[in-house]
Structures are given as C-alpha cells and as structure tokens.
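STRUCTURE:
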C-alpha cells in the first residue's frame, strides 16, 4: 500500500526522466542529483552548497527554464511553490 502517494511518486519519476533527457540534450551531460532536485522538486532550495565547476550555473539557468516551461501549473501558479521570474 502506497498511502495514496503512488501517483505523485510516479509523476515525479516521469518528470525527472524527462528532465534528464532534456538536460542531457542541452548540455551533453546528465544532470547531477542537485540539478535534478532544483528543477523537479516542488520547493526551491534556500542554499546550494556545491563546489566550483560542478554545474551551479546550469542548475540555475536550465533548472529555472525547466520549472517555468515543463512542470505544469502546480509549480508555476501556486504561491506556496511558485518559481520566481526574477533570478536577481
């Protein structure tokens, strides 16, 4: 018994697979787990503590584009999990 979350988990896994394919097409590299979480999780992190050269810029730019265009209204409209349009 999945407690009623099976559909949500399946949807998230599908979203992560789509993001991986899209990110790989854009960069030629598969995303690191932190990049996938940034793009696919319903909440934005307050801090990303990753060493220099591991893809924070790709995370911010491509993750933001993905959230704005591919994750549906649940991440774009709900004020509790809205992706800010202003990165600065």
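SEQUENCE:
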């Amino acid at each position: 018994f999945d407690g009623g979350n099976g559909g949500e988990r399946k949807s998230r896994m599908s979203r992560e697979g789509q993001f991986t394919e899209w990110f790989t097409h854009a960069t030629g590299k598969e995303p690191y787990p932190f990049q996938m979480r940034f793009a696919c999780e319903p909440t934005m992190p307050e801090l990303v503590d990753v060493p220099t050269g591991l893809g924070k810029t790709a995370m911010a730019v491509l993750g933001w584009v993905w959230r704005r265009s591919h994750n549906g209204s649940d991440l774009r409209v709900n004020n509790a999990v809205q992706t800010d349009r202003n990165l600065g």
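REMARK: Residues 75-81 have pLDDT under 50 and may be disordered.
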